Amino acid sequence: MNDIADFGFGTQIRKSPYFDATVRWGATGFSVYNHMYIPRDFGDPEQNFWNLVNDAILCDVAVERQVEITGPDAARFTQLLTCRDLSTMQVGQCKYILITNADGGLLNDPVLLRLAENHFWISLADSDILLWAQGVATHAGMDVTICEPDVSPLQLQGPRSGDIMTALFGDWITELKYYWLRETELDDIPLVVSRTGWSSELGYEIYLRDARRGDELWERIMAIGAPMGLRPGHTSSIRRIEGGMLSYHADATIETNPFELGLDRLVAVDSDVDFIGKDALRRIRDEGVRRHQVGLVLEMDPLTGPNTTFWPITAAGERVGEVTSAVWSPRLEQNIALAMVATEHTAVGTQLVVDTNLGPAPASVVDKPFYDPKKSIAAGRAT
After folding, report:
1. Across the 383 residues of the chain, what is the mean pLDDT of every consecutive 10-residue run?
2. Among 22, 109, 134, 221, which residue is least crowded by beta carbons within 10 Å?
3. Does the domain spanning 290-370 belong to CATH 2.40.30.110?
4. What is the distance between the alpha carbons of residues 367 and 347, in angstroms, rounded to a whole number?
């Protein structure tokens, strides 16, 4: 694995600008996301979790590719792609959005960044929205340019991330609000910094705008951060499930609609804005859905890793849903899971049975997120 030249499946899977640095710093396993390698193993995943929640970790998330939308009609076109009302979105602001198709199915749940009046980035989860956006633009009759820019994010996440970012960039970091961004430089490296991240912890994303300087940026951050507790790491399945955060292809697919996920607040079917899937989503809202995402606690020995198949859920011997993401939380000392379950079995306290890879396990429906439900940790000030 440490022989970088021998690692991989060929040139069809891209390496990030930080790939060599992550291997030097201990990455021993990768998976593929948006046609790129992403580090998934820096050793014990529980230790990675504790590093995240107690101090800070630096993660290579260059796989969060950007779809850049520019041109005179950029704002109107971007609104067409998402069911969230963007009419009040300001320059310098970020928003968590949903991208749906004409049937109301979820295609991606990215973060949208507005860099200028007619300049947007869609920071993607794992699906080919660049192709979708270019296809929509072909028939939209709008003046827009859509491309994938030279942009590769890092995530610096955890309670010490604010101190580390202040040491890197200065005191202005403490004034950067949750889900806002700023264009900046570090040692003349062009960057965008945002108060966002896939961890439910205090955190930042650092968007590199020159891939040639990826190794330099990684080493600069680690040199400043390591004495303050920063460790190289990978996005934590434990923490994101604790926080009820979606993983596309696991917890949501093109067959899932926002109402099943409890994301009604992000669906502006009663507004004046126009977007793809509006009629279908209004109909789904009015008719009601037959299943909902819930949180579960599984009564069984601690899981040694996340589920790699969708576990069936039964009630009185009848299949009523499936577990999409499950993991042992060492902080909560529980096996916790996100699941899609028939609506009549979603009340808190409902008893179900999950057919895990280790055999049947009793399960209880609980409130989600499992930890910090108001996201006060992530949304709190950096100081």
Report:
1. 59 94 96 96 97 98 98 98 98 98 98 98 98 97 98 98 98 98 98 97 98 98 98 98 97 98 98 97 98 98 96 98 98 98 98 97 97 92 44
2. 134
3. yes
4. 9
Q: Which two tokens stand for residue 231?
A: 């460790």
How does DSSP assign 278-328, residue by residue? HHHHHHHHHH--SEEEEEEEE-SSPPSS--SS-EEEEETTEEEEEEEEEEE
- Angle at which helix 74-81 crosses helix 129-140, to 10 degrees, equals 120
What is the CA 185 to chain-centroid distance, rounded? 25
Give the list of residues 6+ apart from residue 181 with CB closer than 8 angstroms, or none: 92, 93, 94, 113, 115, 192, 193, 194, 195
Which residue, among 362, 220, 238, 232, has the nearest Cα to 300 in the 3D structure? 362
232 in Cβ contact with 27 (< 8 Å) = yes
| Structural domain boundaries in the chain | 4-65+151-241, 290-370
Report the pLDDT value the prediction gives residue 11, as an integer from 0 to 100. Answer: 86
User: Nearest to residue 368, comparing CAs of 238, 239, 243?
Assistant: 243
| Helix ranges (DSSP H) in 63-160 | 74-81, 129-140
Domain 4-65+151-241: which CATH number of 3.40.50.1370, 2.40.50.100, 3.30.1360.120, 3.40.50.150: 3.30.1360.120
Question: What is the reported pLDDT for 6?
Answer: 59
* Model pLDDT, residue 382: 44
Is 0.90 topped by the overall pTM? yes
Residue 1 is predicted with a pLDDT of 42
Question: Between the CA of residue 61 and those of 242, 271, 320, what are the distances in Å?
Answer: 20, 34, 35
Task: Say how many CA atoms lie within 13 Å of 336 toward its Cβ.
Answer: 23
| Angle, vertex CA 192, rays to CA 125 and CA 71, nearest 5 | 75
| Alpha-carbon torsion angle 14, 246, 292, 308, nearest 10 | 60
Of 169, 180, 166, 161, nearest to 59 by C-alpha is: 161
pLDDT for res 235: 97
Res 10: pLDDT: 82
